[in-house]
Amino acid sequence: VAASDLFVLMEGEWQPQTRQIYDRLRRGVRRGKHQDQALRMAVLAAFPDRVARRRNGRELLLAGGGSAVLEESSVVEAHEFLVAIDVEERRERGLPLVRLASAIEPEWLLDFFPGRVTERNALEWNRAAQRVEAVSAMLFDGLVIAESRGARPDPLEAAKLLAAKAVEAGVERFVDPDELNAFAERVQFASSIDDGIPALDQAAIEAGLAELAAGAR
Q: Does residue 88 form part of some domain?
């Protein structure tokens, strides 16, 4: 499987812009059996702001934000990570078009640009599994390059998110609506004659649900 559109262009008639790109990259590449990999590394070193990750088919996510579409004639078909060497802006015709691409390995981003790689740890609601998950990710200029799920989340933070999702879905799904309304009316009455008794607002409901959900996911 071809890993760079540049390799294909080398075998055909060169456009002036392509010759300029290749000459720029070749200066930092030593000849040898690993020349193809070295050239792809040189592409990354020359265009670190054009790193992209394949999202679906030929649709790409770009480092720094945004999306683009890979040219159908591109030979970079199987690789997940790549550098968008030549990008055509198409403001009136949808997403930008990547005309030339070159595949890279995600670990090269750590090797060459460790200062641009950040780590993110967060809790997310898995709607399909109906549970809270701890998600750890490594990002290059905001683009996720590695992600893991399944670690046990912090119990307190997980309980808060679980309670918020319960309120979002509707507390009535978890308690008898008539009993909840009757209880809310009693609390409201008590609160009206005693300032020391807080009203039963959404914040109080979420706090109560979080206490009940402690230890759950």
A: yes
Decide if 170 is inside a domain. Answer: yes
Look at residues 95, 114, 133 and tell me which one is the last residue of a structural domain: 114
- Report yes or no: 83 and 101 within 8 Å, Cβ to Cβ: yes
Mention every residue, 6+ apart, whose C-beta is less than 8 A from residue 69: 58, 59, 60, 94, 95, 96, 97, 98
- pTM beyond 0.85: the answer is no
Same domain, 105 and 160: no
Total number of domains in the chain: 2
Please give the chain's pLDDT, 217 residues, in tens. 578 887 777 665 556 666 666 666 656 555 444 678 888 999 999 999 999 999 999 999 999 999 999 999 999 998 999 999 999 998 777 899 999 999 999 999 999 999 999 999 988 888 888 788 889 999 999 999 999 987 778 888 888 887 777 777 766 666 677 776 777 778 787 878 877 777 766 666 666 666 655 655 5
The residue range of the domain holding 22 is 5-114
Paired tokens of 181: 């309304």
